[in-house]
Amino acid sequence: MSGLMNMILSMLLLSGVIFGVARITPGIHLKGFGAAIQVAVVYSLIDMLLFRVLAFFSLPFLLITFGLFVFVINAVMLWLTDKILDDFEIEGFGTAILASIMITVGNLILKWLLL
């Protein structure tokens, strides 16, 4: 599969996971699947731009927690996505952490099964 098709499929998978997580998690509000695609694109851009910087500065926490602090980093990126987009809202940081765990695990499982 070409790089572009792989990227498009990855975005659609992430959008589906985000849509599913928003449907089953209280405190997450998403206005349809189109908004889930927007969230996936913005979240991925934030991930590309900030994840390594955030991981570097939180390295002691990542080491102490055996990498589990990555869910907090992902929650921060979800919170930033919430602040950028009007059609996506997360109520509280605890909800962002829960969503971060569910999105990360769900996306990894789908990629493992399909890609």
TrEMBL record:
<dbReference type="InterPro" id="IPR007165">
    <property type="entry name" value="Phage_holin_4_2"/>
</dbReference>
<dbReference type="Pfam" id="PF04020">
    <property type="entry name" value="Phage_holin_4_2"/>
</dbReference>
<protein>
    <submittedName>
        <fullName>Phage holin family protein</fullName>
    </submittedName>
</protein>
<keyword id="KW-1133">Transmembrane helix</keyword>
<feature type="transmembrane region" description="Helical">
    <location>
        <begin position="61"/>
        <end position="80"/>
    </location>
</feature>
<keyword id="KW-0812">Transmembrane</keyword>
<feature type="transmembrane region" description="Helical">
    <location>
        <begin position="92"/>
        <end position="114"/>
    </location>
</feature>
<keyword id="KW-0472">Membrane</keyword>
<feature type="transmembrane region" description="Helical">
    <location>
        <begin position="33"/>
        <end position="54"/>
    </location>
</feature>
